């Protein structure tokens, strides 16, 4: 199963990616997570990426495309993978298309999670993440059992530095101008499934499973 998860910031890509991994066992490749890991480890890539991420801008294509190609060429991706947050503009989509064609790989589905724009800021700004295991919560829509503590590993929950109102608004603008055109791009390729992401988390996953069936 080769899948792309598409959608604006806060749409629920990471949340549904966790459900997809649990059910289908495909490797989850999130460019945002890869950049955040590099920032935490203080690598050169992390230092460069941080500048852009903190401003809500896209990390340049030359830092992004190669790392995705190298990740999907690894052994565990032979039978499938799920890209979350890549591609994010037409250049990245063309790059991926060329890479997949050259390697005789076909995409099975692009899952496009659609959410009304007025919900996105509340979703992103209310998000809390476990520093230790990466589990995602929301203070209102998906709270942890104990305030500020992860249900899975009991570690402290934290907020992403780019989850403030100003940066999320900028990320939404970038999504509209650079990423949203990919909906038409993949519609033309006949691989897209549009999912109503305004619904409850479990209902969204039911619709995703139906689209992947
Ligand atoms: P990235 O990490 O990819 O962030 P994003 O695309 O902005 O998406 P988010 O992680 O904010 O949201 P999500 O859709 O995963 O939502 P979630 O499931 O957490 O990218 C971060 C940055 O890295 C970018 O800005 C850019 O700088 C850089 N970058 C990454 N990839 C790049 C690329 N390819 N090229 C260049 N730069 C790149 O849900 C959000 C919240 O809502 C959670 O709290 C959740 O609990 C809640 N929630 C989820 N679903 C529902 C629901 N149905 N109902 C109610 N609440 C819900």
UniProtKB/TrEMBL annotation:
Keyword match Hydrolase: no
Pathway assigned in UniProt: Purine metabolism; AMP biosynthesis via salvage pathway; AMP from ADP: step 1/1
Residues that bind AMP: 31, 36, 57-59, 85-88, 92, 160, 171
Location(s), subcellular: Cytoplasm
InterPro entries: Adenyl_kin_sub (IPR006259), Adenylat/UMP-CMP_kin (IPR000850), Adenylat_kinase_CS (IPR033690), Adenylate_kinase_lid-dom (IPR007862), P-loop_NTPase (IPR027417)
Catalytic activity, as annotated: AMP + ATP = 2 ADP
EC numbers, comma separated: 2.7.4.3
Location of the region described as LID in the Swiss-Prot/TrEMBL record: 126-163
Listed GO biological process terms: AMP salvage
Keywords assigned: ATP-binding, Cytoplasm, Kinase, Metal-binding, Nucleotide biosynthesis, Nucleotide-binding, Transferase, Zinc
GO molecular function, a single term: ATP binding
Residues given in the record as ATP binding sites: 10-15, 127, 136-137, 199
One cellular component (GO) term of this entry: cytoplasm
Binding annotation for Zn(2+): 130, 133, 150, 153
Pfam families named in the record: ADK (PF00406), ADK_lid (PF05191)
Domain remark text: Consists of three domains, a large central CORE domain and two small peripheral domains, NMPbind and LID, which undergo movements during catalysis. The LID domain closes over the site of phosphoryl transfer upon ATP binding. Assembling and dissambling the active center during each catalytic cycle provides an effective means to prevent ATP hydrolysis. Some bacteria have evolved a zinc-coordinating structure that stabilizes the LID domain.
Family of this protein: Belongs to the adenylate kinase family.
Assembly and interaction partners: Monomer.
Function per UniProt: Catalyzes the reversible transfer of the terminal phosphate group between ATP and AMP. Plays an important role in cellular energy homeostasis and in adenine nucleotide metabolism.
Name of the protein in question: Adenylate kinase
Organism of this sequence: Peptostreptococcus russellii
